[in-house]
Specification:
By secondary structure, the protein is an alpha/beta fold. It folds into 2 domains: 123 residues, 2-Layer Sandwich (Chitobiase, domain 2); 336 residues, Glycosidases (TIM Barrel), CATH 3.20.20.80. The chain is built from 15 helices and 20 strands. Strand 2, helix 1 and strand 3 form a beta-alpha-beta unit. Helix 1 runs parallel beside helix 2, helix 3 packs parallel to helix 5 and helix 9 packs across helix 10. It is elongated, with a radius of gyration of 24 Å. The chain starts with 11 loop residues before the first strand and ends in a 13-residue tail after the last helix.
Length: 488
């Protein structure tokens, strides 16, 4: 019996003869330190199989055994070894993260119907005998989701996290604030959501830079996540081995915050939450009051998100208002800054130092390089490895051919590349179905790029395995491109 179509493809896979069959006597064996991982696997296998799958401390036969094994330390924080024989399935790993990844591979070794939520009459749950040794190529394997342009319901966010876990992606970059909407409750500043989370209208396709040709939906749009919602999502993700990276945009892309609290801007004038896409000259001021405000915001963000990294945006910040605002020019003179680019760098360095004092690290888009990079900052290059550039069509083949490490880097420089992630910007994705149509199966391809070693990857093989994998996505009600017609 041949192994199923596995995505991402494992580093090493050796087929064996025979199979393990899940049955009424099958148990999951795990010590107390892996109880959570055992319960998650049980809960994922029970609905379709209808089997009890009790968790036990030991079993003689027909068991799925989970165990931490320090002798596998060479596999790193997320590696695992999965062995399937006639009487036992064993998942061993140096850390719990590896156990979770091994469990996802185990699910893919079963028929696609394992993802259904009700028992399948007459189904045989056979797992082909195999030995797999696996570990990721990159530590950062992520998916970004912009909920500022269009708010996405909490249940969709949870579903997206489940899909990331299935594909061994481990970072969910939650883009929570924008010119067009502030999506996270901040207790100290309630108007951020009371005012900033709602806009009067939304620009629709087709894209145009000519204001006279713009079209609008004619409907208000809004929504936000309460702090209890956020805690729920963070815990849900953590249980599945996924870190959530929150993003609070500053000093640009902050018009929703300025609409809620005009004193955060440079003019003091009342503005509205932006209804168009693109860049606005309305950016945060650089006074002490603005710094204190966003320190307060980040205090609440840090309390909600345990992530080592905190994203502060830093991209697309026009300097027009700063050039024409006395307080900004006074700040430049006081700090000995030569230009407005250095003023933005000063702003980012302030929050870099503030986060470092609290044991966190700042992440920003590549514009934070302009004017000098803050010493503890991590850069996300969204405009490409060659410099500014965005747009165009990324096919499935393009994504699969992507290599996160630029060829011009030396071996020493390569060590600083953490990984990559798929960027989902939702200006023209008004609902979850449209997001899924644009994201999948390209995120499937990216998962293999980031997890699997280059020598195991082959486009023809990937497409063959994808045929089976799309059956899994269909069962999970993922509106991947090609499943239905293009959503409106």
């Amino acid at each position: 019996m041949a192994p199923a179509a596995l995505i991402p493809v494992p580093a090493k896979l050796t087929p064996r003869s025979g199979a393990f069959v899940l049955g009424a006597t099958t148990s999951i064996v795990a010590a107390d330190d892996l109880r959570a991982e055992a319960e998650l696997l049980r809960d994922q296998l029970r609905p379709a199989t209808g089997l009890p799958l009790p968790i036990a401390s030991s079993a003689k036969t027909s068991s799925i055994a989970l165990a931490l094994d320090s002798s596998l330390a060479n596999l790193g924080e997320e590696g695992y070894r999965l062995t399937v024989g006639a009487d036992e399935v064993a998942i061993r790993a140096p850390k719990p993260a590896g156990i979770r990844h091994g469990a996802q591979t185990l699910r893919q070794l079963l028929p696609p119907d394992i993802h259904r939520r009700a028992p399948i009459a007459g189904a045989s749950w056979a797992i082909p005998a195999v030995e797999i040794e696996d570990r990721p190529s990159f530590a950062w394997r992520g998916s970004h989701l912009d909920v500022g342009r269009h708010f996405m319901p909490k249940e969709f966010v949870l579903k997206h996290i489940d899909l990331l876990a299935l594909h061994k992606l481990n970072v969910f970059h939650w883009h929570l604030t924008e010119d067009q909407g502030w999506r996270i409750e901040i207790k100290k500043y309630p108007k951020l959501t009371a005012v900033g989370a709602f806009r009067k209208d939304s620009m629709t396709a087709p894209r145009t830079k000519d204001p006279s040709l713009r079209k609008f939906s004619g409907r208000p749009h809004g929504g936000f996540y309460t702090q209890d919602d956020v805690r729920e999502v963070v815990r849900y993700a953590a249980d599945r081995g996924i870190t959530i990276l929150p993003e609070i945009e500053m000093p640009g892309h902050a018009m929703a915050a300025i609409a809620a609290y005009p004193e955060l801007g440079n003019t003091g004038k009342q503005v509205e939450v932006l209804t168009t896409w693109g860049i606005t000259d309305h950016v945060l001021g650089v006074t002490d009051n603005v710094l204190r405000f966003f320190e307060d915001v980040l205090d609440e963000v840090l309390d909600l998100f345990p992530s080592k990294f905190i994203h502060v945006g830093g991209d697309e910040c026009p300097k027009t208002e700063w050039r024409n605002t006395p307080s900004a020019q006074e700040r430049m003179k006081k700090e000995g800054l030569r230009n407005e680019d250095e003023l933005q760098s000063w702003f980012i360095r302030h929050f870099d130092a503030w986060l470092q004092k609290r044991g966190r690290r700042l992440v920003g888009w590549d514009e934070i390089l302009e004017g000098g990079l803050a010493p503890g900052a991590t850069v996300m290059s969204w405009r490409g490895e060659e410099g500014p550039g965005i747009g165009g069509h990324n096919s499935l083949e393009d994504v699969y051919a992507y290599r996160p490490v630029p060829k011009q880097l030396s071996a020493e420089e390569t060590k600083h590349v953490l990984g990559a992630q798929g960027q989902i910007w939702t200006e023209y994705m008004p609902d979850p179905k449209r997001v899924e149509y644009m994201a999948w199966p390209r995120l499937v391809a990216l998962s293999e790029v980031l997890w699997s070693p280059p020598e195991t990857r082959d486009l023809a093989s990937f497409k063959s395995r994808l045929d089976t994998h799309l059956k899994r996505l269909a069962i999970l009600d993922v509106n991947y491109r090609g499943r239905f017609s293009t959503p409106e």
